[in-house]
């Protein structure tokens, strides 16, 4: 899989001179029809120049988010830990609702009313003491690679980090809220449900983690070199 990803980038090196978004996908291939069909697994790798998922301005100044009326799936409804295409229908409904309402992104709660994640990103908050919190993997959230990366970076930077459940009012009174994801990278949230978060601008915690994260992915931090695969 790694070699296939590298080949895609190498074969289009001029097109992707400034980087690319890679999406490997495994799917059930040709053969029998029906819900009970078990066919050979096929794999494809796609790549494209996507840019900042929530906008360059969003990375710099933060975005506006809305708690969705759609609920994130219960842990027994599906394999919620998996990055499964069909599960994104739930996210699409939430995202469209938010965008049509004039917001940049949706935040979904679980069936108990706790914050789970955004439509395509994990979520972090920071309080007045700079203690960072994020929902635990026992919540119906994706075990994101960028989430795991940020947890490690925060701990290495000496920031207290707690993986705990919290309700939407914790978002409202947070000093900072930010999203993480392969596409979203580290995106600050300046407003939730028409309520300003902190000063209304990206705070010191997200700025520090943004700066370090981009240094890491650009190969400028030797201590995290094992995370990189050179093309």
Explain this structure to me?
There is one protein chain. It is built from 6 helices and 11 strands. With 231 residues, it is of the alpha/beta class. The mean pLDDT is 94. The chain is globular and about 55 Å long. Strands 3, 4, 5, 6, 7, 8, 9, 10 and 11 form a 9-stranded mixed beta sheet that branches. It has a two-stranded antiparallel sheet with strand order 1-2. The protein folds into 2 domains: 49 residues, no CATH class; 162 residues, Alpha-Beta Barrel (D-amino Acid Aminotransferase, Chain A, domain 2), CATH 3.20.10.10.
Layout of helices and strands:
Elements: H1 2-11, E1 21-28, E2 41-48, H2 56-61, E3 63-67, H3 88-100, E4 105-109, E5 115-118, E6 122-126, E7 132-134, H4 145-156, E8 161-163, H5 168-172, E9 176-181, E10 185-192, E11 195-196, H6 204-217
Highlighted features:
single chain, 231 residues, D-amino Acid Aminotransferase, Chain A, domain 2, 9-stranded mixed beta sheet, two-stranded antiparallel ribbon, 11 strands, globular
CATH class of the largest domain: Alpha Beta
Q: Mind describing the biggest β-sheet?
A: 9 strands, mixed
How many domains? The number is 2
Helix run count: 6
CATH superfamily of the largest domain: D-amino Acid Aminotransferase, subunit A, domain 2
Mean pLDDT: 94
DSSP strand (E) fraction? 15-25%
Count of DSSP strands: 11
Structural class: alpha/beta
């Amino acid at each position: 899989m790694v070699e296939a990803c590298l080949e895609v980038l190498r074969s289009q090196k001029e097109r992707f001179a400034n980087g690319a978004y890679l999406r490997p996908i495994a799917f059930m291939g040709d053969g029998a029809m029906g819900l009970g069909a078990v066919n050979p697994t096929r794999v494809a790798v796609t790549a494209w120049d996507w840019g900042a998922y929530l906008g360059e301005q969003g990375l710099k100044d933060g975005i506006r988010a809305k708690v969705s009326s759609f609920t994130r799936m219960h842990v027994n409804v599906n394999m919620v830990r998996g990055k499964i295409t069909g599960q994104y229908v739930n996210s699409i409904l939430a995202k469209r609702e938010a965008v049509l309402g004039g917001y940049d992104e949706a935040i979904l709660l679980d069936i108990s009313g706790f914050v789970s994640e955004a439509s395509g990103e994990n979520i972090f908050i920071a309080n007045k003491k700079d203690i960072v919190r994020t929902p635990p993997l026992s919540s119906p959230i994706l075990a994101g690679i960028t989430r795991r990366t940020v947890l490690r970076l925060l701990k290495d930077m000496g920031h207290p980090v707690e993986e705990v459940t919290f309700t939407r009012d914790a978002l409202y009174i947070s000093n900072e809220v930010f999203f993480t994801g392969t596409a979203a990278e580290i995106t600050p949230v300046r407003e939730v449900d028409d309520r300003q978060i902190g000063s209304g601008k990206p705070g010191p915690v997200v700025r520090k983690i943004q700066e370090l994260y981009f240094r890491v992915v650009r190969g400028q931090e030797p201590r995290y070199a094992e995370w990189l695969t050179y093309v």
